[in-house]
Automatic annotation (TrEMBL):
<protein>
    <submittedName>
        <fullName>Exportin 7</fullName>
    </submittedName>
</protein>
<dbReference type="InterPro" id="IPR001494">
    <property type="entry name" value="Importin-beta_N"/>
</dbReference>
<keyword id="KW-0813">Transport</keyword>
<keyword id="KW-0653">Protein transport</keyword>
<feature type="compositionally biased region" description="Low complexity">
    <location>
        <begin position="595"/>
        <end position="613"/>
    </location>
</feature>
<feature type="region of interest" description="Disordered">
    <location>
        <begin position="280"/>
        <end position="307"/>
    </location>
</feature>
<keyword id="KW-0963">Cytoplasm</keyword>
<dbReference type="Pfam" id="PF25795">
    <property type="entry name" value="TPR_XPO7"/>
</dbReference>
<comment type="similarity">
    <text>Belongs to the exportin family.</text>
</comment>
<dbReference type="InterPro" id="IPR044189">
    <property type="entry name" value="XPO4/7-like"/>
</dbReference>
<keyword id="KW-0539">Nucleus</keyword>
<dbReference type="Pfam" id="PF03810">
    <property type="entry name" value="IBN_N"/>
</dbReference>
<feature type="domain" description="Importin N-terminal">
    <location>
        <begin position="26"/>
        <end position="92"/>
    </location>
</feature>
<feature type="compositionally biased region" description="Low complexity">
    <location>
        <begin position="282"/>
        <end position="307"/>
    </location>
</feature>
<dbReference type="InterPro" id="IPR011989">
    <property type="entry name" value="ARM-like"/>
</dbReference>
<feature type="region of interest" description="Disordered">
    <location>
        <begin position="594"/>
        <end position="615"/>
    </location>
</feature>
<dbReference type="InterPro" id="IPR016024">
    <property type="entry name" value="ARM-type_fold"/>
</dbReference>
Length: 1219
């Protein structure tokens, strides 16, 4: 970088070049520039002289990196000069910069101010004194520039600088900036809106300047209200969470004129539609005006406003600002009347906008989105007890109800309708609470009746909207639309909450429309759209019956509103208004299936013609108002639909299983199972008794079980069935066995015995299709299937019967092992060091079917061994598989271990075999199913697994190229994690005495442990946390070692021990609980060993004395890491609000007992950061922190310290000492 032209070329290539190799070289050049502090002056000169936006952006980025990384090396005079230059450059050149460059430079200035804030706090607090004459006393353009710079500075202060800031420093800067400048910045933004409101003239030529100024002011208001007030390192919208409260400081209360600010924001919005509101009022007052002319004028006005994108953007920002004010915590309003006044003003302003329809048109998408969110937030943060005292509550609800009905038919307002839907759902919950607390006040009863009436209509509107929407979904999108986590289904589930208001009316509406559709199906008048609508209604059935238990908890749920309105007999009203079975005349639902007969499938087969007589469909006139009866009717219709669907498939009336219909049926069966099984008394629920009266053929639990069982098995036997249907069928089959295992003797049913005998690939084709699937869910189909199927075998307590079943069950696997044995004999493969291994690998590469068969066999065995839940079953399985069959698996693995899926599944099988509880991990020490201590099989199994692990690691490490280590680690991260996990599983077993191997001079365990330790040499210190599974397994291994074999950690050389503590330090700073709790356990256990053995005069064990001395030296060599760990843990205690102190208090106490200098240093640093008036209080708190704490890590001592630490944490926060 010798000239300006070279730097401009470099910056252009950096942003525009897509070649990977070239980018690496360019990044190296840029890193060289950043690493040299002397380049700062050169970069400033480039920024002043270049006109290239690429060069400007890159120079800003480089300056930001230099300031962040090398601030401590910059002299004080240079720091002042740098700050003055940035301010001058922004004020002189800011108007000539593009928005991107201006934002970048403003953010750079904010970064400099933040880093230097504590060094010159008084000087930085005078920032606004510099801003006012430079920006806010000049032209409108300069005013806008000043607002934009302040916004970027505010955002920069709210963002933690990960490269250099600890949370403690970040929060201290936040508190100082918040208390000294933030409120003043907010007032500047609000005042700029006020000035515009006074001076605004929409007929002049300065509209564009006005728009820019208002937008900049609103952006600044939003950045202030979303400022991280408490230093929690989060924003207002974490994952779209509107329940987040804006933490406006209570200290702002006296000067925070929330009523004035709300009024200003509403006036700013109304001024956008000043002309529209004028036209509206004129139309109201002049009755003689031609109605058609009014409509044309309104349409023209709307078109004009729709075209104004700036209006849409600014209106959205105003509503977002109002929503943030509505989300603020109660303290900012002062006493309760202040909160009520704010709410009155907010509701009144919203009603005025709704009454005049100001800007609420579909094309203003952002505006209506934020408007509906504003209403949603009001109901979220204010209770109905607060809202009932407002002057226009019913008017507000009435307008929103009309808006919901209007938007439900407009596809362009779908996003806004979602927020209105959640608004009404919140109203449902609020209404129940309000009903409980409202005594017999007549006004309250009227309000309850009014909301109840609205909600019953809203539920019908949303059902209708969803049913119409499902008919518009393209065939290719159906699968994703009905995915468990899709927005479509998430919104649909909200219906079950809406039914709490009037379940009877919602039930009647759904049943009426369902019966029309199903009658078409029984008469063979169905088409694709009909089946879609039926599928949707069945899913709605599922959502409704899922609430059965909650409805049943109330003895008289139908009389929830009995004190306000007598129950309405909707069915009798229906009889008066409609003839029996003639629902279409009054239905508000527009059925595509009824009106489109062109594509109807008229099948003339005799079986189908008689299908209607097989189903005894009950009409609405037969129903009662009992919620249990209504749930029974829903379930009856669902079961009849399943029977009809299976009959149509058996008669080949359907070309194949219809995916959307199958999905809806499985959703229904899942909820039906949950309702049917009563876990408390394991008897038929009252709903089951209702079913026995409604349906024929269901006399006991066995009939219900077999009905569901046959349906699921039928699904699994179908070829080319969608992955989601198979996955859901397997889940339900597992749930079915689990639910009925104590109610009926499942293994001895004829149907289940047939399944034990016949479970090969020919019968269940999905086992073969998805063996090598790239989809993680489908990849585990075989394991899940055999995990479920094995329950029929491994739940047999009679020994002779179990052996017979097991022999029958494993016949397909015996055949598979026999074929692989013949294959190995053909290849003459004897061991892992076979000289012809390359030829064998070529054979498997040329014949991939054998690799797929091998993968399938391993997956099947994983599913089976996971169900060996006691030592009897496990021993029987082990004697079957070892040694011959495990030898066959190992010989094939030695050839094709380079295939990642093979290694992953084979290691998971070994982990299953070595786990003491049959789980996939060694994290739970529950019921023991592995061999007793006296059994030699325990040592044989662990030696076998360790040898495989040792040979695999040696083979893999040989192939690692040091120059490509990052790519190697990325590729092998999952496999390395499995190596750690397998070794952790072996070490975790309490029955295992590793001294036995040493007694016989068998060093296989030491060799395996040694090569596993060497794996850490192949990735840098900061790399492991990039891969969560690898990091979790790594820390788990050392956690288990610290508990079972701490000597193995202590005997690490100085380099590896330091590497371990560096990883622990990074994991704790990552604030990821999956990692740092394990890291804390490692430290605690090592400290316990140290305290028990170091300097113990009574200790006679020379080995322990030597280990304690070695550990002492390790701790001395890692004092820096220990201090960083201690400071971060204390930081977490003080500032992480959700942290359980007891989880890390033992580690903190251990570090204090290990080296009290850590505690003293932290204490002194904390005294330096608090105000002088708090230092006495802080001294008292530190004294109480170690009260009644002795020099041990006993459980009692840890509990005492944890109690003291909680008290310390509480008082430091509540007494205002924290900042």
């Amino acid at each position: 970088m010798n000239t300006l032209e070279e730097f401009e070329q470099l910056s252009y290539e950096f942003y525009m070049n897509t070649d990977q190799e070239s980018r690496i070289k360019i990044e190296d050049q840029i890193n060289n520039i950043i690493s040299n502090l002397d380049n700062t002056v050169t970069i400033i000169e480039i920024l002043e002289n270049t006109s290239s936006p690429y060069a400007q952006l890159l120079s800003i980025t480089i300056l930001k990196k230099i300031i962040t990384n090398y601030w401590n090396k910059i002299e004080e005079k240079q720091r002042l000069d740098l700050g003055n230059w940035m301010f001058t450059f922004l004020s002189d050149q800011g108007l000539n910069l593009t928005n991107v460059i201006l934002n970048g430079l403003s953010s750079l200035y904010g970064r400099l101010l933040k880093i230097s804030w504590l060094e010159d706090q008084k000087g930085n607090e005078k920032l606004l004194k510099k801003f006012v004459p430079a920006f806010f006393k000049g032209t409108a353009e300069q005013y806008i520039l000043g607002l934009k710079i302040l916004m970027q500075i505010t955002i920069e202060f709210s963002t933690i600088i990960k490269e250099r800031e600890f949370l403690l420093r970040h929060r201290k800067i936040l508190a100082s900036f918040r208390d000294n400048l933030l409120l003043r910045i907010f007032k500047i933004a609000i005042n700029s809106l006020t000035q515009e409101e006074q001076q605004q003239d929409y007929n002049n030529t300065n509209n564009e300047i006005t728009d820019l100024k208002d937008n900049a002011s609103l952006d600044l208001i939003i950045s202030v209200l979303t400022f991280d007030m408490g230093g929690l390192n989060r924003t207002e919208e974490v994952d779209g969470n509107d329940s987040f409260k804006v933490s406006i400081p209570v200290s702002w209360r006296l000067s925070f004129k929330y009523l004035k600010y709300t009024e200003i924001l509403f006036k700013c919005y109304l001024s956008l539609f000043q002309q529209q509101s004028k036209d509206t009022s004129n139309g109201i007052n002049s009755q003689s005006q031609n109605q058609n002319q009014n409509e044309n004028n309104n349409n023209n006005n709307n078109n004009n406003y729709i075209q104004n994108e700036r209006t849409n953007e600014r209106g959205a920002k105003i509503f977002r600002s109002l929503g943030l004010l509505a989300s603020s915590k109660r303290g900012v309003y002062g006493k309760k009347p202040g909160r009520q006044m704010f709410l009155n003003q907010l509701i009144k302003g919203i009603c005025y906008i709704l009454e005049n329809n100001m800007g609420l048109v579909p094309a203003n998408n952002d505006l209506i989105h934020e408007f509906t969110r504003l209403n949603d937030k009001i109901l979220l943060h204010f209770s109905l007890n607060d809202l009932e005292k407002t002057e226009m509550l019913q008017t507000w609800l009435s307008y929103l109800f009309s808006l919901t009905l209007k938007w439900s038919s407009d596809i362009e307002t779908k996003g806004a309708l979602y927020y209105l839907g959640t608004f009404w759902i919140k109203a449902t919950f609020q209404l129940e609470l309000f009903k409980t607390s409202s005594s017999n006040n007549n006004n309250n009863m009227k309000l309850i009746n009014y909301i109840r009436e609205i909600m019953s209509k809203i539920s019908q509107t949303i059902i209708t909207y969803k049913c119409q929407e499902v008919t518009k979904i393209e065939i290719d999108d159906l699968s994703s639309s009905f995915d468990e986590e899709s927005t479509f289904l998430v919104e649909l589930r909200a219906l079950r909450d809406l039914t709490k208001i009037d379940y009877n009316l919602t039930f009647q509406f759904i049943i009426k429309n369902y019966d029309i559709l199903i009658e078409q199906c029984y008469n063979n008048l169905w088409n694709e759209i009909t089946l879609r609508e039926i599928s949707l209604l069945i899913i709605i059935f599922s959502q409704l019956i899922s609430q059965y238990d909650k409805r049943s908890q109330s003895n008289n749920f139908d009389d929830l509103f009995s004190t306000t309105m007598p129950p309405t007999n909707y069915i009798q009203n229906d009889k008066q208004n409609n003839t029996e079975n003639n629902y279409s005349s009054t239905s508000t639902f527009k059925f595509n299936g009824i009106n489109s007969n062109n594509n109807n499938h008229n099948n003339s087969s005799s079986n189908n013609n008689n299908s209607n007589s097989k189903f005894q469909k009950k009409t609405l006139n037969d129903l009662k108002l009992s919620t249990r009866k209504m749930d029974g009717e829903l379930i009856m219709r669902g079961i009849e639909l399943i029977k009809w669907n299976e009959e149509m498939i058996s008669n080949n009336s359907f070309p194949s299983r219809i995916e959307i219909l199958e999905f809806s049926i499985l959703s229904f069966l899942k909820e039906f199972l949950n309702v049917y099984i009563n876990s408390k008394n394991e008897e038929l629920t009252s709903l089951s008794n209702v079913l026995s009266n409604l349906l024929s053929g269901f006399e006991n639990h066995t009939d219900v079980f077999l009905f569901i069982f046959k349906k699921l098995i039928s699904n699994l036997k179908t070829k080319e069935l969608a992955e989601k249907i198979i996955a859901q069928s397997l889940k339900l089959l597992n749930l079915l066995f689990k639910s009925f295992k104590r109610m009926i003797d499942i293994p001895n049913l004829q149907e289940t015995q047939d399944l034990i005998k016949n479970h090969n690939l020919e019968i269940f084709p999905f086992l073969d299709i998805y063996t090598n699937s790239s989809n993680p869910v489908a990849n585990n189909f075989r394991t899940t299937f055999y995990n479920t199927l094995s329950k029929l075998v491994f739940n047999e307590r009679r020994q002779t019967v179990f052996w017979e079943k097991f022999e029958i069950f494993i016949q397909p696997f015996e055949k598979a092992f026999f074929e692989f044995d013949n294959l190995l004999q053909t290849l003459n493969h004897n061991n892992i060091n076979n000289k012809n291994k390359d030829n064998d690998l070529e054979f498997f590469s040329n014949n991939p079917k054998y690799t797929i068969q091998y993968l399938g066999l391993i997956k099947d065995l994983r599913g089976i061994v996971s169900q060996c839940n006691n030592s009897h079953y496990f021993s029987h399985f082990f004697h079957w598989i070892y040694p011959k069959k495990m030898g066959i698996l190992n010989q094939i693995f030695a050839v094709i271990y380079q295939i990642p899926k093979v290694t992953e599944n084979y290691f998971n099988l070994l982990i299953q075999l070595c786990s003491i509880n049959g789980k996939n991990s060694a994290y739970v020490n529950s019921s023991n199913r592995i061999f007793p201590i006296s059994s030699p099989n325990l040592y044989i199994l662990f030696k076998f697994a360790c040898n495989i692990l040792y040979e695999y690691i040696c083979e893999s490490l040989i192939n690692i190229d040091p120059n490509l280590i990052q790519e190697q680690i990325t590729e092998k991260a999952k496999t390395i994690a499995l190596c750690y996990k397998l070794l952790s599983t072996i070490i975790f077993c309490k029955q295992m005495n590793f001294g036995v191997y040493k007694a016989f001079n068998d060093d296989f365990f030491e060799k395996t442990l040694s090569v596993c330790f060497k794996l850490s040499d192949y990735f840098p210190t900061d790399t492991i946390l990039i891969y969560p599974k690898l990091a979790k397994a790594y820390f788990r291994l050392f956690e288990v070692l610290s508990k079972r074999l701490p000597s193995e950690i202590i005997q690490l050389d100085e380099k590896n021990f330091k590497e371990l503590f560096s990883q622990i330090n990074l994991s704790i700073h990552s604030k990821n609980t999956k990692f740092y709790y394990k890291a804390c356990n490692i430290i605690t256990r090592l400290v316990v060993f140290y305290l028990e053995n170091y300097g113990n005069r009574f200790l006679k064990n020379e080995k322990k004395i030597s280990l304690a001395n070695t550990l002492h030296q390790h701790f001395l060599n890692n004092f820096g890491n220990l201090e960083s760990i201690f400071n971060q843990l204390f930081d977490l205690v003080l500032y992480e609000y959700k942290l359980e102190v007891s989880n890390i208090s033992g580690t903190l106490l251990g570090l204090i007992l290990l080296n009290d200098q850590l505690y003293i240093n932290f204490k002194n640093n904390m005294f330096d950061t608090v105000l002088a008036k708090h230092q006495k209080d802080l001294e008292v708190l530190f004294t109480k922190l170690l009260e009644d704490v002795d020099h041990t890590l006993s459980k009692r001592n840890q509990d005492t310290f944890s109690h003291n630490l909680n008290n310390f944490r509480y008082h430091v926060r509540e007494d205002g000492i924290l900042f």
